[in-house]
Amino acid sequence: MGISFEQIVTSPPFNFLVGPTRTSITLHSALVAHHSAALNVLVNGDMSEARKGVAVLDDVDEDTFVRFSQFVYTGDYIPSSPVKPADVSEEGKISSKIPRWRFGTPPKYTLIRDTDDPNSTPQAVYFPNKYEKKRGQGFTFSPPKEIARRNELWETFGTLPCSRPIATTSSLTQTPARTKQQWSDNDAEPLLCHARLYVFGQKYGIKPLETLAIHKLWHLLVSFTLGPSKTGAIVELLQYTYSNTPDLNQDVDDLRHLVSHYVACECKTMAESEDFSQLIEQGGPFVRDYMKMIVKQVH
Fold first, then answer.
1. How far apart are CA 287 and CA 289, in angstroms?
2. How many C-beta atoms surround the C-beta of residue 137 within 10 A?
3. How far apart are CA 14 and CA 52, in angstroms?
4. How far is CA 268 from CA 52, 146, 184, 202, 224, in A?
5. 94 beta partners
């Protein structure tokens, strides 16, 4: 059920003291309550916080709460150093290129989704290169088994549920995209900002925020060019994810599934990282999920 503009602006303000420094951030209580049943109890319940109109959230960093505030007012948020958005082709299709392989002769795959149907499943379309054509005639190309198996992992990654486009009416001004030179080595913040919002949404039962955050992270990972100098950022993302999401009995948390799947796609590059090797040596739920992904390559 929606909430009217009048309900928002006539509701009393509620003050959140956020982070270790307890930065004061004030939001309309009706808007906060509309998005989260858990926060509704905090702002409108019988607890002392509701009576005083003030609550302390010292386990949430300021940047994450500011992005949450952007989300409740606009339905979107400005990430930390976002990458270039997907290109729109002349045919009206949205395409995001699957990263190229770093060995062998890689086939080229492009995700194609029909913009007329936002719920459609994107198709991984194969485009043969000039060496795989003969006088304009395409012919069957069978890549080495290792490449073919990794292709399958990337195709699956490209069609995960979180890849579905999300329509927003936000008028937020997006920060200009960083170039490759501007993204410093092992800078994990552009990745972590989405993971933190996913965890925040999960903690306070804000499913639309979870969905938006994991979609933005998926798109960033698809666009991300991983090299040896940036594997540390992926390790930080893994550590944060597995320290702040639940270990489910019969299933895998969506964020865990996303990052473990990505690492399996990039296993050759990640295997060269000392930080990643140390993470593997520690064992735990990530190694379990990662090995399941690797087994898919073997079989």
1. 6
2. 6
3. 9
4. 55, 11, 22, 32, 16
5. 88, 113
d(CA 290, CA 299): 15
Residues 37, 205: Cα–Cα separation, whole Å: 7
* Interval 220-274: pLDDT, tens: 898 878 888 889 999 999 999 999 999 987 889 999 999 999 999 999 899 999 9
Name, in order, each residue with C-beta under 8 angstroms of 44's C-beta and a sequence gap of 6 or more: 29, 33, 50
Q: What share of the chain is helix, strand, coil (3-state, %, to 5)?
A: 50, 15, 40
Strands (E), the chain: 13-18, 23-28, 54-57, 87-88, 93-97, 108-114, 123-127, 133-134, 137-138
Cα–Cα dist 182/252, whole Å: 34
Token pair, residue 141, equals 């190309």
Residues 6+ apart with CB under 8 A from 149: 296, 297, 298
Residues present in the chain in total: 299
